[in-house]
Amino acid sequence: xxxxxxxxxxxxxxxxxxxxxxxxxxxxxxxxxxxxxxxxxxxxxxxxxxxxxxxxxxxxxxxxxxxxxxxxxxxxxxxxxxxxxxxxxxxxxxxxxxxxxxxxxxxxxxxxxxxxxxxxxxxxxxxxxxxxxxxxxxxxxxxxxxxxxxxxxxxxxxxxxxxxxxxxxxxxxxxxxxxxxxxxxxxxxxxxxxxxxxxxxxxxxxxxxxxxxxxxxxxxxxxxxxxxxxxxxxxxxxxxxxxxxxxxxxxxxxxxxxxxxxxxxxxxxxxxxxxxxxxxxxxxxxxxxxxxxxxxxxxxxxxxxxxxxxxxxxxxxxxxxxxxxxxxxxxxxxxxxxxxxxxxxxxxxxxxxxxxxxxxxxxxxxxxxxxxxxxxxxxxxxxxxxxxxxxxxxxxxxxxxxxxxxxxxxxxxxxxxxx
Length: 419
Known about the structure:
Keywords: Coiled coil. Residues 66-93 form a coiled coil. With 419 residues, the chain is of the alpha+beta class. It is 15% helix and 45% strand. The strands form five sheets. The protein has a seven-stranded mixed beta sheet, with no helix packed on it. A five-stranded mixed beta sheet has the order 13-10-9-16-17, with no helix packed on it. A five-stranded mixed beta sheet has the order 18-15-14-21-23, with no helix packed on it. Strand 14 (277-283) and strand 15 (290-296) form a beta hairpin. Helix 1 packs antiparallel against helix 2 (98-126). It is elongated. The two termini are 63 Å apart.
């Protein structure tokens, strides 16, 4: 299998079939050598696109064609009926000797055994979903035409799935695509996966002036306490959009795939094993718990997808994660570390004492994170020296030895109220 990450548009090799997958639609394109071909029965004529170097003079659609499973099931049912009929005829035969009775008994037993085997096979086929096709015939104005057909795969299901495992100081990330509910087998198919919609607007919206009547409260960055990827929300939406639009559009190109109808087809898009720094992220601004966090910088983009998290090969949770661009330092969370005990005691107004204890048998990295208001001027009190970021975030990193305990006092008092 050959997988290439392509930047924007390029020239692609010609395969028997090409499957283009967008965020809202999948389109199958085939090279046709004959003037008749098979398409899914549900396909409307308006959804079929035919391209040729010849003029197409006529198109006709045939009737429904039974699928292989239905035909096999019907054949078995005919055999079963024949066995039942012969059983009744033989059973009602006139017998004169004991040998005839013994021979008849053996024949009837064989018949019943065959009936049971065929009935079991029919039951097995009944669990297989059936699908139907129809024949399309075209008439073209020249000999040896070069023809392709394209149509949407409306019933096919496409799902991205990422798997993340932290083990022995490394984080392994595997990106997969699951294709299911196909109504036909696709052999040697060439797949292109685009990160945008077919129906997405190709032009910007109409520009109109904006009037601000009240001041919006500045967002404060809170790392998630629900084990998802950490990201900075303090950027304005317009800045995020500009950054995304400046990036090159990328997509995956995957060749020589053999996809089975009505089965789950799993395709590995990308795998990478990266160095990662492990720490215990304490959200002192929220629940005051220690979460296992691994920071890393991916070599390749990680697309948004449902993500399975594993810690030392043990499943932790599923979480839907946003896209991460390559070379960007990012963080994944792997759940609570119950061996890091954190307790909080509120003191005076906006002041608290945090008691942190490492109950594990090894040293643990700690990242203690809290915050102050951003719309007023405050004085930081306690053990956390230094200034906060523009989003009010204050962070302290340290190491706790096994069975070591540390106390952190933190608070703030308002100096000047904002206008």
